[in-house]
Design goal:
It is built from four helices and eight strands; from the N terminus they run E-H-H-E-H-E-E-E-E-E-H-E. It has about 160 residues and is an alpha+beta fold. It folds into two domains: about 60 residues, Arc Repressor Mutant, subunit A (Orthogonal Bundle); about 60 residues, no CATH class. The protein binds zinc ion (ZN). InterPro entries: DNA-bd_dom_put_sf (IPR009061), HTH_17 (IPR041657). It holds the Pfam family HTH_17.
């Protein structure tokens, strides 16, 4: 998938799954309006079929639990240009398109931005190879490497300079 292209996340109608029923791959695909290959991917991703039943059959309660858990994990997944804000408890973009970059190692950079919604400092570590793509979304400010001698830690108390 090309960078920047986001497939709209269609919500699966998980409520259609009956806890007490069992479903084979075709039935799950039909019930949830998705492709059989998607169902097969879930099976690879940890959806547990019933033992010793061929073709594969999944219990409704297992299917429901799997999809609910997966939806939660998705909600917290950050896009490449998002940070996870611990105050908002959600992925957020950095305010004013500004992100500070510190080069930690030859391959890894540490990013800091302020939550566009609540102003809380957010941190994220990325591979340095991801920086060119980020530079398209943000004005990246490269900071000097952190010094250990008496350098003050970055303020975490929301002590922001006037916007
Ligand atoms: Zn926030």
């Amino acid at each position: 998938m090309p960078a920047g292209m986001k497939r709209p996340q269609r919500r699966l109608p998980v409520q259609r799954v009956k806890q007490a029923a069992t479903y084979d791959v075709a039935e799950m695909a039909k019930l949830l309006g998705t492709h059989r290959n998607t169902v097969r991917r879930w099976l690879k991703d940890g959806l547990q079929p019933l033992d010793d039943v061929r073709p594969i059959v999944v219990h409704g309660s297992e299917l429901k639990a799997f999809l609910t858990k997966r939806r939660k994990a998705r909600r917290n997944a950050c896009a490449p240009d998002e940070f996870f804000c611990f105050r908002c408890r959600a992925p957020r973009r950095a305010a004013a398109g500004m992100v500070d970059v510190r080069h930690r190692t030859a391959t890894v950079a540490a990013l800091t931005g302020l939550c566009a919604t609540c102003g809380t400092p957010m941190h994220r570590t990325v591979r340095r190879t991801a920086l060119p793509a980020l530079a398209e979304s943000y004005d990246l400010q490269t900071l000097a490497p952190e010094r250990l001698n008496g350098c003050t830690a970055p303020s975490l108390n929301g002590d922001l300079k006037g916007e």
